[in-house]
Amino acid sequence: MSKPVRVTVWNEFRHEKDSSHAASQIYPDGMHAPIAGWLRQQGMDVATATLDEPEHGLTQELLDKTDVLIWWGHLAHGEVCDEIVDRVQLRVLSGMGLVVLHSGHHSKIFRRLMGTTGHLKWREADERERIWVVEPGHPIAAGIDRFIELDRVEMYGERFDIPAPDTLVFISWFEGGNVFRSGCCWNRGRGRIFYFRPGHESFPHFHNEQILRVISNAVNWAVADNPGFDDVANERESLEPIGAKD
Ligand code: ZN
Predict the structure, then answer these.
(1) Mind spelling out the 3-state secondary structure of the chain?
(2) What is the CATH code for 6-115+181-222?
(3) Which of 64, 76, 108, 159 is the 20 to 30 Å CA partner of 118?
């Protein structure tokens, strides 16, 4: 049997600590808790880390033994230290997978890896969303029917300022008329990145088995085939002789 996938679920974990916020009722142990619980049920080796821990819980030691990092942030993107962002970026480039959820579109790490602002349109009007599968053969869509329907969501709409995804797996339709590229894959260096839209803190989307299924599929997809680090080197010696030029 192959070794279990090692996942770290990182969560800002601020809304859930505010007793006046709906998130404190929906996710009393933090929204990382149901995600981690689901991934453990799938046989994965799961750690969690949160913003207010030393080094935001993302020590070099933990990252070195993380195959895939999941990221949820919203209120406090600016409080994430640049040094930790550098550390995560280097791990992604050397093969660690990264799954960015919902408002993580504005996180330092996502913007750094994309090279764009991550800006989008948004609206809180409790509208319906259909998340359409546009690549049914893709492993991230495994076990999902034609679409996932959510009754009440925060809308995210185009334009979403991202580089064109290498593969677009899901497109969302919203009751109010907007559309959004809600499941996007990219490669950066040896690392694989997936952005997935659902997960607003005021709704129980991380208790929804279809949403959790997409997240575990994304983790399995994001595990590198060939992790390693591609260093800079001066190749003075050539493989073949190089002829003299006039
Ligand atoms: Zn939100």
Answers:
(1) CCCCCEEEEEECCCHHHCCCCHHHHHCCCCCHHHHHHHHHHCCCEEEEEECCCHHHHCCHHHHHCCCEEEEECCCCHHHCCHHHHHHHHHHHHCCCEEEEEHHHHHCHHHHHHHCCCCCCEEEEEEEEEEEEECCCCCHHHCCCCCEEEEEEEEEEECCCCCCCCCEEEEEEEECCCCEEEEEEEEEECCEEEEEECCCCCCCCHHHCHHHHHHHHHHHHHHCCCCCCCCCCCCCCCCCCCCCCCC
(2) 3.40.50.880
(3) 64
CA of residue 77 to ligand 1 center, whole Å: 13
Ligand 1 centroid – CA 223 distance (Å): 27
Distance 154 CA to ligand 1 centre (A): 6
Q: Where are the domains of the chain?
A: 6-115+181-222
Distance 167 CA to ligand 1 centre (A): 24
The rounded Å distance from CA 124 to ligand 1 centre is 8
Q: Is 0.90 topped by the overall pTM?
A: yes
Instruction: Using the mean position of ligand 1's atoms as its centre, give its distance from the Cα of residue 107 in Å.
Output: 13
Say how many Å lie between the CA of residue 42 and the centre of ligand 1. 27
Q: Please report, in tens digits, the pLDDT of each residue of the chain (246 residues total).
A: 579 999 999 999 999 999 999 999 999 999 999 999 999 999 999 999 999 999 999 999 999 999 999 999 999 999 999 999 999 999 999 999 999 999 999 999 999 999 999 999 999 999 999 999 999 999 999 999 999 999 999 999 999 999 999 999 999 999 999 999 999 999 999 999 999 999 999 999 999 999 999 999 999 999 998 889 888 999 999 999 999 998
